[in-house]
Amino acid sequence: MLTVSVKWQKKVFEGIEIDVTLPPYVFKAQLYDLTGVPPERQKIMVKGGLLKDDADWSAIGVKDGQKLMMMGTADEIVKAPEKAIVFAEDLPEEEQATNLGYSAGLVNLGNTCYMNSTVQCLKSVPELKAALSNYSLAGRSNDVDQTSHMLTVATRELFSDLDKSVNAVSPSQFWMVLRKKYPQFSQLQNGMHMQQDAEECWTQLLYTLSQSLKAPTSSEDSDAVKALFGVNLRSRLHCQESGEESSETESVYSLKCHISHEVNHLHEGLKHGLKGELEKTSPALGRSALYLKESLIDSLPRYLTVQFVRFFWKRETNQKAKILRKVDYPLELDIYDLCSEDLRKKLEAPRQKLRDEEGKKLGLQTSAKSSAKDSDVKMTDAEASSHGSGESSTVTPQEGASSEKETHMTGIYDLVSVLTHKGRSADSGHYVAWVKQESGKWIQYDDDHPSLQREEDITKLSGGGDWHMAYIIMYKARFVSM
User: Fold this and answer.
1) In the predicted model, what is the mean pLDDT of the chain?
2) Which residues contact 300 (CB under 8 A, 6 or more apart)?
3) Of 439, 414, 444, which is closest to residue 329 (Cα–Cα)?
4) Whole-structure pTM value
5) pLDDT tens digit sequence for 261-289
6) CA separation for the pair 443, 39 (Å, rounded)
7) Contact 263, 272 (CB under 8 A)
8) How far apart are CA 2 and CA 216, in angstroms?
9) Residues designated catalytic
10) pLDDT digits (tens, 9 = 90+) for 183-242
11) Burial of 173 (0-12, 13-18, 19+ CB in 10 A)
């Protein structure tokens, strides 16, 4: 039996006995009685890190009379309700939808799962919803045609209907306008609408919104969709025949994860996707020649979209075939090593701030370069509007902290949605959306049937069989305030 003292906040609890024959969870239960901090919230610093519930006391090396430090927030004292209880089913439908914590599903109108899953994923971006809510006929640019305008309005209305409803919403108006704008989605087979490619729907819809939501100025900052999803690439072109070298830049809305027998992880596939070959005219040779193209990311978006290149055209069967190979992807993605040298330099200071802040939360010593004036640095995520920065939706600003601090990219992203495909061909099968809510819960949107999912199951949608496998995934940028 050991006797220790425990410091928690400004209090010190003396003479707490530890029965080393029992697991540390029993010790945490003792502290729960003293402090009101539940065991799962307790962070107790010991040699080697944090005290785990099932650790071996003899391996930890806690000594008699030792002073331990604990961090954690106590449960609030339960108070009697000031207002009478109102049951969820008695609330108006819009309030029921809010209390539910996630929006409604979408009715399948006949092979429209590709469209439904695309809508659910894009709807999860609050900045896109904000930009759409501000869109009106009066603000429509002269460059935007009537069908693009109609599709933008239909998207805005569908997003709004989903947020207000607890029952499945029919996207009939949206689907009608989508087919009018892009007739390829009207293809029929045996009198029924054909299954379409979700990536094509995603790309076409974003392109339309980028035109409609662009402010009538020449400024790049006026492009709301590019600010949210645009990735700038800087590429080096090298001709092996002539030795010529040149460079070019381009903006894309997604990165490609190319899949081969060498690719087991998303990061490897992204590296493959940033390298390639193309044929173009060589000024030195006066004819077409083969060029090697190597690209690096030169600017980062708030939402990074990745497409797994799973479909290819199979000449023997004259149809699209699917690569079923398993490719793992993480909940947290760091793309620092895929960035250009200039961008890496810009990311270094924010990344150090992020490491220091995470270290402080665990009670670790921060970098020697960090000073006391940086102690109010906070992690934020990209909940700001598409035209500027904002405070985090998950981290509360500290009292007295400046509200004028700028948010900076870190090159680290958190997974927020996955669009999966089940089946052997892009022209058949079934698409489903898996979306992370603001509460942190994951919801599977299988057309009109939303269902709660475990986070640990989301990364299991990586392929290798006939089950749902990731086709398009979206990550959200992690920021720091400086």
Assistant:
1) 85
2) 231, 335, 339, 343, 409, 411, 477
3) 414
4) 0.72
5) 999 999 999 999 999 888 988 898 989 99
6) 28
7) yes
8) 72
9) 113, 430
10) 999 998 888 899 999 999 999 999 999 999 986 655 555 789 999 999 999 999 999 888
11) middle
What amino acid occupies position 364?
A: L
